[in-house]
Amino acid sequence: MSGSLWLRVPGGDTLPVIPRPRDTGPGDDGPAGDPMDELAERLGPFIAAAVHPDEIAAVLESDGMTDEHIRLTYGRHDSFGLAEELYARVPRAFPEPEHVPDPWKVSLTACLLRGVIFALPGLAYVLGAPLLEGPQDRLGLPAGTLTLLAGALIGWVWDQTLSHRAYSWLGLGDRAAAGRTLLVGAPAGALLGIAAALTVPGGPPFSYAFAAGQALYVGAATVLLVLGRERVLLAALAPMAAGSLLALFTDPPVPLRVGLLLVSLLAACTLAVRELPLAEGVRAGARRIRGWAGHRPGEGPVRWRMLRGAEEEYGPRGPRIGDSVPYGVFGLGTGLLVLYAALGEVLAGGPAEAVAAPSAVALTLSMGPAEWLLHRFRSGSLAGLRAARSPRQFWLRMLGTLGRCLAAYLAVLLLLGLVGTLLWPGAPGLTVVRVATLLLLGAVMWTGLLLQSFGAVRPAAVVCASAAVAQSLALLLGVGQPRLVQLAVAGAAAAALGTLVCLLLGRATAHR
Known about the structure:
mainly alpha, 512 residues, elongated, 21 helices, 68% helix
């Protein structure tokens, strides 16, 4: 019993017989494969596109795999351990989707139409020029210029703020609240513009009436543009535009000039009033007045709303007014910079012939292409997010898109400036300094609008307002030559805004 358990075969091998694999026949599937390989092959596209193992773990759990099943089938502790191994086993591959709609695609025609609408009211000054005749003011400007500029600048600042607040309501899906905002804000802005014009003494009598009409038109145009009625506004401006073109070749009588101006003004105001919820606004105002005289917290029966706190119940709702103020500051800064580009030399004591009106007209007309190129930048940055494989690669792609869009805008601006200078009677020539100032000012406006479109309006407003203040101080103190001061201020502002764009928009999270 103490001998070997294995029988010794004489002359044979003492090892036991090792079983050999059977020959596979036609109906045999062969040995079972590795379940990890099968799983990796089945979930290959999901695993390859994952950027973190947790994504794969979520797919496994949504597929119904429990930890017990994973331990029995794959020999891993749980879904996270299995996901990490699958993530390491399958190489990364991010296939491009077949068709991705571009949410930032807009019509170039619509943007160009808005640019024309921005510049078309300038023809009213051509039609009303004979009515503004008089001696030049103390700065050497044509009669009534300061009166019209004061009303236009104040109205522009107010309506920039009003437009943002109305657009904020529209973004929240409350068109009625946007209409009420415009119903209150547009007349208030018109009154502010008229009051600002009346504070400037020494203008011709007709200049104050013209400034009043200008303020009313700005309010009406704000309503129509915010509510998307560009074509309606263009139709309202048609009589005035036709009369202005006629005045370039003939000398229409004064009653005809005044009549065409009034027809366009009344048409714009009538169309704006038609778009506003006038009756609803009156009822809402009456309800608010009755509410002010009604109950206050602590009066009347206890209600469940009292538990929320008086400051929450009676606090302001919707977009905050303070969020719209930077847009007005940005409008004030850019408006002053454009004003100095056109009248800076004259305001500094230069001859009246130094008025660079074509530069201001070119900047105004270029707002249509600028808007379209802003959308092109958003489309390009979105494509860069899909194509980039690292933050640095996305930053480089963003810079490339920025350079192309900005170069295209400056090319359009330069073309408009050259054409305007050639067509404008008595316009000063575009010297190297004037061209550089125009392009730098265009870069300031476009990069400022770009930051504004991404919600970074406060730094853009600070830079533009600071540039306007610096140029105003240089003008008041008589520091430097006006052209060189404009060039230096515009260059510094463009550099500051360009740096902000690279810092703020170089992050992928800014393009959500």
